[in-house]
Amino acid sequence: SASCVDGKKRCVCYYYDPGIAHIKLSDEHMMVPARVAMAHSLVAAYGMLDSMRRLRTRPATESEIRRFHSPEYVDLLRDLTPESYDHGVLGRLKDDDHGLGGCIECPPFDRLWNYCRGYAGGSLAAARALAGGESDVAINWSGGMHHACAAKASGFCYVNDIVLAINELLGAGAGAFRRVLYVDVDAHHGDGVQEAFADSDRVMTLSFHRYGKTPHGGKFFPGTGLVSEIGRGAGEHYTVNVPMDAGVHDDVYQSLFKPIVSKAMEVFDPEAVVLQCGADSLSGDRLGSMELSVRGHAECVSFLRGFNRPLLLLGGGGYTINHVASSWCYETAVAIGKERDLPDEIPKHGYDLFYMNQGNKLHYSVSEATVNSKLLKKAAETKQIVLEHLSQIK
Ligand code: V1P
Ligand code: CA
Ligand code: ZN
Fold first, then answer.
1. How far apart are CA 117 and CA 125, in angstroms?
2. pLDDT category of residue 95 using cuts at 50, 70 and 90
């Protein structure tokens, strides 16, 4: 058990598979799974492992992955290697319906299936620890792959561990939860999770993300997540989207996050919460173009933790790997209530050279917020519309 700044004790379960250190999607790929090993190494160097229970876990089984993903897609993913790709394994499905043919965003790579089973197994184990009442907070930084669809890979995501974990939380067994709130602070829209539960009133999906045009004229990926996407049928109003402009800093972000999350908590009253902690919304990310500080990002974790519902913390995006590791390390400290005790100086450990670019400080410096009246006005409007949507529940 870990005591906390608010005086409450919480049992925190932590999942980590060292195999992640050696996974590479391709030589130049933006998604670097080894950032999870960096975060873990930093958590260990700060002496936090003794404050958590390490989850004993196994890779997700094929049948567990089939609970969400389609039969043909799972067959393909299981058999996909760089060699089978070259020998035309994808010919079994026509076109690129499965998202695996483009080779750039979701390439085939050595041990792809092991990687997917590994991070999905972590999220499932974490969900079981919460559903079984063995823990109050469960962490899997290798999970959070929010774009994967039932029959399609997308945006660096192959298996949607979040959908699998939420289904586990909802499961039929004793200790299962009636309603699960999903919150997504990755810079990208959580489209795969939204679509999976669009018809459900047992899962509310709430994504904060960047939305709009990029300087190159295209749409910021994936191009969905407007406030007008509110869900379907019984799930109407249980899909919530908070699109934002590039350049949003801590203050503006929290001026939306806190009131909207509070309202969602009030009207939906979830029995468990899943937070996707994608770290590409941090300032200085290679893809995200949002401007959150490590403290601003972690404020999302501490705010949700303060509601005292079983909480599942997952990773996600994050492409400046030293920033990602700093952020997930600090958020691990928030989970165990030790964030005030972490020295800002990065301790000596195996990866310490990676933090030179940020002056070897956990809380690297973020550019001064530029007050932009157009951005503020848009944020205030978005907040109003979303709060009105939410007030239509019940
Ligand atoms: O923008 C696209 C492509 C353009 N296509 C028509 C789609 N893809 C994005 C994919 C981002 C995936 C994010 C995953 C996550 O949400 C969860 C793990 O973080 C993309 C971006 C971008 N700025 O959004 N791909 C790339 N950048 C990219 C850049 C360099 C090399 C390869 C891909
Ligand atoms: Ca998001
Ligand atoms: Zn992202």
1. 12
2. low
107 CB-near residues (< 8 Å, 6+ apart) = 25, 26, 29
The answer to whether the CB of 143 is under 6 A from ligand 1 is no
| Of 40, 69, 98, 147, catalytic | 147
Residue 3's pLDDT is 42
The pLDDT-based confidence of 5 (bands split at 50, 70, 90) is very low
On whether the CB atoms of residues 264 and 303 are closer than 8 A, the answer is no
147 is catalytic: yes
Does 33 contact ligand 1 (Cβ within 6 A)? no
* pLDDT tens-place string over residues 245-280: 999 999 999 999 999 999 999 999 999 999 999 999
What are the residues whose beta carbon lies below 5 Å from ligand 2 (ion)?
A: 184, 186, 207, 209
Pairwise CA distance, residues 265 & 271, whole Å: 10
Average pLDDT for 287-291: 96
pLDDT band at 74, cuts 50/70/90? very high
- In whole angstroms, give the CA distance from residue 290 to residue 284: 8
Q: What's the rounded Cα separation, in Å, for the pair 275 and 42? A: 21
CB 162 less than 6 A from any atom of ligand 1? no
**Structural domains present in the chain:** 12-390 (3.40.800.20)
Q: Extract the tokens encoding 135.
A: 């823990």
7/10 Cα distance (integer angstroms):
10
pLDDT at 125: 97
